[in-house]
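Prompt: Have a read of the protein record below and flag anything odd:
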Amino acid sequence: MFRLARSARTAVQRRSASNLMDSAESFLSGSSSVVLENMYEQWQKDPSSVHPSWKRYFESFHATPLVRPAPKGHVSGSSSTSTSQISEAALRDSIKMMQLIRAYRICGHLAADLDPLGLTLPQRHPELDPHSYGFSSTADDHKIFIGTELGGSSLNEQYAYQNFGDLVRKLKTTYTGRIGVEYFHITDVQQREWISHQMEHGKPHDISKEEKRNIYSYLAQAEGFENFLAQKFNTAKRFGLEGGESTIPCLEVSLETAAQLGVEAAVIGMAHRGRLNVLGNVMKKPFAQIFHEFKGEGNKGESTFFGSGDVKYHLGTSADRLIGGNSFHVSMTANPSHLEFVNPVVEGKTRAKQHFSGDTNRSRNMSILIHGDASFAGQGVVVETLSMSDLTHYSTGGTIHVIINNQIGFTTDPKSARSSPHPSDSAKTVGAPIFHVNGDDPEAVAFVSRVAVAWRQRFQKDVVIDIVCYRRHGHNEVDQPMFTQPVMYKRIKDLPSTLNLYTQRLIASGVFSEAELSSIRSEYAARLEADWAASKSYKPKASDWLEKNWQGFKTMAQLEGSRAPTGVPLEVLRAVGIKVSTLPEGFAAHAGVARVYNNRLAAMQSGKNIDWALGETLAYATLVREGYPVRLSGQDCERGTFSHRHSVIHDQNNGAQYIPLRHISSDQAFFRVTNSHLSEAAVLGFELGYSLEHPKLLVLWEAQFGDFANGAQVIIDQFITSGEAKWYRQSGLTMLLPHGYDGQGPEHSSARLERFLQMSDEDPYIFQSDPWKQEQAINYSVANITTPANFFHLLRRQVVRDFRKPLVVMTPKKLLRLKECASNIEDFAPNQAFRRVIPNTVSDATKVQDDKIRRVILCSGQVYYDLAEARSKRELESTIAIVRVEQIAPFPFLEVRDHAIAKYPNAEVMWLQEEPANMGSWSFVEPRLRTILREMGGVELTVRREPKYVGRKVAASPATGFSKVHEEEQAAIINAALTI
């Protein structure tokens, strides 16, 4: 079975004559016979005088002697002049035929029979016309020397020459039949040769009866499933696969071929269309469960482990299948209606699988992405994801891209949806071969599926299968497509299904009888009916949703998690701290970097003045020492946008790299820090996917500036914010977003803290007295930290507890070098933990009586240091208390009450922030402060105890673009806060 896939395991060694002329391709396309004759004569006199590519070609031509009885179709001659003329004529014919062969390889896809509807007719491309090369009067049986091209052999007289007519017919069958291939954009000659070989030697329809039976069975399942759902739920949206049923044979053959070639697991991402069909027939999700979900009852009267849930065509699943006698794990990632944004999530999940399974050559775990034609052509995240395909720390060893080419978007024709003949052109940017195939030819679909997987395994590169099909219904089953595409849908109405066409074909060929094929369909229909009956009593359970790596972690309903410590013994901390602060002997670090590391070493030795970057490094160092892998990525995160991290050090003499966090101990866990390409959406999605695969690792993404997170808003809004509630998928992904007002203008000040807080799902009007339950019940945490030690504990908290939540950190900029922003080693000790609120801090010499405090100012982030400095200069410590809210969501009701409001009974309550009033934390904090005040003193509030706001005024833009205006605004905020 799958002879093609088996043959693809070994590299194609032979070089064809036309590909040997690769460096002379431009010359070849425009050369005249006179120039060729002159070059030939020059080669005869001195072989080294022509380009090596032409030298090899002429040598190949002469592998068969010229002085011999002329083949049939040649004009014979007796003189040496005649022999010479015959040789030159043969050479010209051979060159012209090579040009024609090359034209078919490049342009054949434009003339291929790809459209099942017959609305898009194959083009008459002039470069595919033999007349264009001077073959106008050539007889069908005219013999032409082709060397090793199209199955020829320069070492065998019989095959070195082939009939002109046979060659043209073979070219048409291979490149303009129901398969069209684009691959001459690939720069690697060996890769192009490989595809030429597969196309020209492969026979899509020369397969066994058993393979035909399998393909028919897959088609019968695809159509039978859709028909069954249409019968049972005739008014429901299901985004059915009708018209694109060949997708199921494509996926099944791809998985079977992959299993034969050593793949053990596949992660799949796809859009709506056909998703339920793939879930049931490929992923083997129980039909009873699918039918239960169609009834839309959710968790009514059932289990309490569900969140809000999602529509059935967004859901994912995972399963172990038996393919080729071996266990094969398949998983489909859940995704929202922003369809293509699942692409990087799948890639990240695949990469994590490869890491945790030791798949270093990326041959045992692969990604399959299923796209729509309009979205593949139109969505930028497609290109952003493709751009990762060959990046060292993002590559997954090649992805199988399947385009279900409906030849229409929602209601948009291709001419309005893209500027290229095919929807797949963006894949050319990464050298991916593109196989276009007529969806009504399931055997051709199976053939290109086998070739695609063999390509992936052979070259570890992306590949595209463009199944040109149609959409039998509208965008969904209740949509009316005749409003906008009347001609197309009149044609579709009368078109037999792919299954019907294949049924007729198999019966007509005598391979199967109608009774045999009917039995296959009936057996599947009976199975659906049995599962329909079972769905009536189906009850969902946690095992339907949890993946194996997540067993034992607390669900949304299990709120009794233990409080794991985040502190580290001081002797351990000092040892690893010295280790990661010491440069190797003889390593020529930049003087500035060497100074940074010397300061870190001094801080660890003294236990004083541990700055932000060192506190972060200590978190990573202690985690990998304890067996928790750490992965940090983002634009310029190795050095840090603000030149503070320096986690990768470069030798100034030879460019060698040294990463201290990889040299802690011989048995430490994996540590990866890597600069990403200039993408937010794809990279954040990738890291999210990575975090979904396994709970026992810390995955972080750092934005170059916090403002840039808006480039990944779909990933944030649709995947991170509500992923657990919708899909029951936990993630410990951490987002580091530089944030703070430093006079750098509107694009480099705000990470849009207010957006993250607005998407928090905590009720502001209910006082929360159990902080731990808060942590488990909320969708994610949002923090704005002021000390290195607290950042250390926050990062460690992400992986030491027994549940996972995403974390958003407004990381500072000016605090990175602010001397006052430092911690002592005791702050990292086992008796310390993350502090959601840091109480008022004053010098030991200042006597503070709580009942004398007239104002308590709550704030978060770097503005605290400006405020504290000004308070000290004005000697207001005994009058004004400053309380830092380090974690804003979930809001620390209990700590704010105890450390701020109840502690200072005669103080007015004020919230201070740098951001404008319509941004930042104020709209989130204000109702929660009122809830605390109500909980303490009843409904009636005195004016003095009503929370007040100090910060920038309401604005359209996050910040001013003028540095002096910024300074004036900042001074005004501090002055207003300290003026009583």
The first helix runs from residue 3 to 7.
